[in-house]
Each structure stands twice: as structure tokens, then as C-alpha cells.
């Protein structure tokens, strides 16, 4: 298996150096970019397996860089920022990020998140192999990682939101706690706020066209978590 390449895009040299040290210690190949334009160029020329992308960069900020990346690539992206407000997390996930880490952060935690996301990106969850999940108004194909709503509308999802949907839809009606979903999707080595699940549920519902007040697919179980509402069809 070839060494996986991580691209770090951050205007602070000390952060790049620190993150690079931890990732290289974990066996990754690391390349760096100091601003948005050079980061976009490195995505094209370097073909990274994952991008760690700072949001608060002068000029072309991380949100703008992420949108341009998503126009041509599905490479996993972890946003790195000092902005912890929920609205910023929503913007990041809506733009297509796979995770969101706020400064100050633990480099060890970031390295664990990188590894967890790359494990997910290697393929669909084991329990979902070789089966298409069919529901009234929704078809999920774990093998091709595609989702179709209605008769022909392709639903665009980030890698993490797709895995979250498969975890829920794999056992319709089952109530998942936030911790349970984190273990299914993020992995047992996840460190961080469990409310990240709520943010991803919102972006997932938006992509599916699901109304949170009268959901068709993803329902909220108050004070507990979430469950998939639609029933399978033949």
C-alpha cells in the first residue's frame, strides 16, 4: 500500500510545522501550502488523499478554497479554524468539508481524525457492502456511494454525510444516540464535541430536501438522538 499524502494549507508556519511532525510520525507523506491559491494548485498537482485547510487566511479564505476544491474534487477536507461559532461549522459542512477542528487544538487529535476519515474514504462501511438501500423516494448505493432522490435527482453529499446516511438507513427505525452515530461514522477514536452530529444532520437533511419539522427520512428523537423514518421497498 502506497503512503497516503496529506496537504496542509495554512498561513502560519508554526502550525504547518507542528501538524506536519505529527502526521509524518504517523507514516503520512506531507506537503504544505501557505495560502489559498497555492493550496488549490497543490490539490491539482499533488493529488493529496486528504487536505487540512485553514479557514482564516488572508486573501482567499478557506471557505472559498473549499468551494473551488469541491467543484472538481471529492478529496476529504478537514477545516482548521479559530472560529467556533455553529454558523461557521454549518457553512463549512454545507460547502463540503468532512470535519471541523477549532484552534487551539490537539495535534494528536487532528492526526486521529485524519486517520479516521481516510479509513472511511477507503470504501463503504463493511455492513453496507453489496447492497442497495431502497426506500420510497430515496435510493442509496453504498458501493458506488451515490444517492438518488425521487426518480432522477442525484443528491450531492460529503463523504462523511454519506456515511452518516448509510448508518441511519442501514437499520430503519433504530434510534441512534449521538455517541452511537459517532462510533459508527467517525470511529471510536473520535475526540470532540458530540454536537458535531447535529450539524451534519442539518446538512444531510438540507441535501435530501427533508423538513426538520415534518421529516420524511431523518427524524429526531428528543433528548436521545436520531432515527431513519422511511421503510424499505422491494
In short, what is this structure?
The chain has 8 helices and 12 strands. By secondary structure, it is α/β, with parallel strands linked by helices. The chain has 2 domains: 5-121, Response regulator (Rossmann fold, 3-Layer(aba) Sandwich), CATH 3.40.50; 126-228, Winged helix-like DNA-binding domain superfamily/Winged helix DNA-binding domain (Arc Repressor Mutant, subunit A).
Describe this structure in words.
This protein has two domains: 117 residues, Response regulator (Rossmann fold), CATH 3.40.50.2300; 103 residues, Winged helix-like DNA-binding domain superfamily/Winged helix DNA-binding domain (Arc Repressor Mutant, subunit A, Orthogonal Bundle), CATH 1.10.10. 39% of the residues lie in helices and 20% in strands. The chain is built from eight helices and twelve strands. Strands 2-1-3-4-5 form a five-stranded parallel sheet, with helices on both faces. Helix 4 links the parallel strand 4 and strand 5.
Q: Element order, helices and strands?
A: EHEHEHEHEHEEEEHEHHEE
Number of domains: 2
Helix coverage percent of residues? Answer: 25-40%
CATH class of the largest domain: Alpha Beta
The CATH topology of the largest domain, please?
A: Rossmann fold
Ends distance: 39 Å
Side by side, the strands of the main sheet go: 2-1-3-4-5
Radius of gyration: 18 Å
CATH superfamily of the largest domain: Response regulator
CATH architecture of the largest domain: 3-Layer(aba) Sandwich
Shape label: globular
Tell me the structural class: alpha/beta
Task: Report the portion of residues in β strands.
Answer: 15-25%
Number of strands: 12
Amino acid at each position: 500500500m502506497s503512503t497516503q499524502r496529506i496537504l496542509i494549507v495554512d498561513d502560519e508556519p508554526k502550525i504547518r510545522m507542528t501538524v506536519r511532525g505529527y502526521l509524518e510520525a504517523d507514516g503520512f507523506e506531507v506537503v504544505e501550502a501557505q495560502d489559498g491559491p497555492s493550496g488549490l494548485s497543490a490539490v491539482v498537482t499533488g493529488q493529496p488523499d486528504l487536505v487540512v485547510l485553514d479557514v482564516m487566511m488572508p486573501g482567499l479564505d478557506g471557505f472559498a478554497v473549499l468551494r473551488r476544491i469541491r467543484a472538481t474534487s471529492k478529496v476529504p477536507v478537514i477545516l482548521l479554524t479559530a472560529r467556533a461559532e455553529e454558523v461557521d461549522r454549518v457553512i463549512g459542512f454545507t460547502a463540503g468539508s468532512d470535519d471541523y477542528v477549532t484552534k487551539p487544538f490537539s495535534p494528536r487529535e487532528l492526526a486521529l481524525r485524519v486517520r479516521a476519515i481516510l479509513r472511511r474514504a477507503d470504501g463503504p462501511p463493511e455492513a453496507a457492502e453489496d447492497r442497495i438501500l431502497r426506500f420510497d423516494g430515496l435510493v442509496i448505493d453504498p458501493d458506488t456511494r451515490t444517492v438518488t432522490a425521487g426518480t432522477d435527482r442525484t443528491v450531492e453529499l460529503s463523504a462523511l454525510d454519506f456515511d452518516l446516511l448509510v448508518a441511519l438507513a442501514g437499520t430503519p427505525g433504530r434510534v441512534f444516540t449521538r455517541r452511537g452515530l459517532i462510533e459508527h461514522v467517525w470511529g471510536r477514536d473520535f475526540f470532540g464535541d458530540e454536537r458535531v452530529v447535529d450539524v451534519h444532520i442539518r446538512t444531510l437533511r438540507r441535501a435530501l430536501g427533508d423538513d426538520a419539522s415534518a421529516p420524511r427520512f431523518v427524524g429526531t428523537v428528543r433528548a436521545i438522538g436520531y432515527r431513519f423514518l422511511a421503510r424499505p421497498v422491494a
